[in-house]
């Protein structure tokens, strides 16, 4: 090998190493902000949380494989890990997409209430969890899940165990919790309806939140005035499919939110909605 060729290869090698280090620094830095992405999956719920300590948390998976496309759009191509999967309740528009997520991503742990349901998609999801030996934690009471020093999930509901129970209205088993980062708070309610809202109100828990994931896609069976009055959200996000068969969101719910002065964001109008918190304020990413 000539001296000139050796120098050229050496320079190219050094350049390659520098570029690799820069890319690593850009993409592997521990994030300082919290990002919450309300994924556009049609008529259903799927929410991706990118926590400040680097965890990926997925709440529900929507009705079909659309969640895979949205995850690919909102995570780096090499990031195939879901640190925590949360199923609020086992209706198909929340659980079906999670089947494909488990097949494509490495899921470390799952939170669920343990309520019984007999739909094929829910049973297939449970079978996958068993076959892949994923840690499944049953949530049967209020508790706190620490994500980092100043970021946590405060689980508000259920207040009693649904493990092994068949419940007539699965919406009212929805796992409900706050995501708290610094001074900012997000409230996730699944498809919780007014009967369960009343139980939460009776417990006198602090519901105040900057951001509300509006219950049951904006149905008027959810989001009672009393419940919203306790939350006082600045931003209200409705995950809903365009021209859906249910007439969601309800105009009554929209009016209640407007009277509170909340900014309403809808996935059927805006697509995926991305919110970022620095621990002091929440901003909408354009």
From TrEMBL:
Keyword Hydrolase: yes
Transferase in keyword set: no
CDD domains attached to this UniProt entry: ComA-like_MBL-fold
Bilayer-crossing regions: 7-28
A GO term, aspect molecular function: hydrolase activity
Keywords: Hydrolase, Membrane, Transmembrane, Transmembrane helix
SMART domains listed in its UniProt record: Lactamase_B (SM00849)
Domain Metallo-beta-lactamase: 43-242
PANTHER family in UniProt: DNA INTERNALIZATION/COMPETENCE PROTEIN COMEC/REC2, RECOMBINATION PROTEIN 2
Protein name listed in UniProt: MBL fold metallo-hydrolase
Source organism of this protein record: Candidatus Falkowbacteria bacterium CG_4_9_14_3_um_filter_38_19
């Amino acid at each position: 090998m000539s001296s000139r060729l050796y120098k050229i290869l050496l320079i190219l090698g050094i350049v390659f190493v520098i570029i690799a280090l820069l890319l690593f620094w850009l993409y592997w830095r521990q994030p300082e902000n919290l990002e919450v992405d309300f994924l556009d999956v049609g008529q259903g719920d799927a929410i991706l949380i990118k926590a400040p300590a680097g965890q990926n948390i997925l709440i529900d998976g929507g009705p079909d494989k659309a969640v895979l496309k949205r995850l690919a759009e909102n995570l780096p191509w090499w990031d195939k890990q879901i640190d925590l999967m949360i199923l609020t309740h086992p209706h198909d528009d929340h659980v079906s997409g999670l089947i494909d997520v488990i097949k494509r991503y490495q899921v470390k742990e799952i939170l669920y209430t343990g309520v019984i349901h007999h739909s094929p998609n829910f049973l297939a999801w449970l079978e996958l969890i068993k076959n892949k030996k994923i840690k499944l934690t049953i949530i049967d009471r209020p508790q706190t899940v620490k994500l980092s020093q100043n970021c946590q999930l405060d689980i508000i509901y259920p207040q009693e165990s649904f493990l092994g129970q068949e419940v007539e209205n699965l919406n009212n088993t929805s796992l409900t919790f706050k995501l708290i980062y610094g001074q900012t708070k997000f409230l996730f309610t699944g498809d919780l309806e007014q009967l369960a809202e009343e139980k939460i109100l009776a417990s006198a828990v602090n519901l105040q939140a900057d951001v509300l994931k509006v219950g049951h896609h904006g149905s008027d069976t959810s989001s009672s005035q009393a419940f919203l009055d306790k939350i006082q959200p600045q931003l209200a996000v409705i995950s809903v499919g365009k021209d859906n068969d249910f007439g969601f969101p309800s105009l009554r719910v929209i009016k209640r939110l407007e009277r509170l002065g909340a900014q309403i964001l809808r996935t059927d109008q805006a697509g995926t909605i991305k919110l970022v918190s620095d621990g002091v304020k929440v901003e909408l990413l354009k």
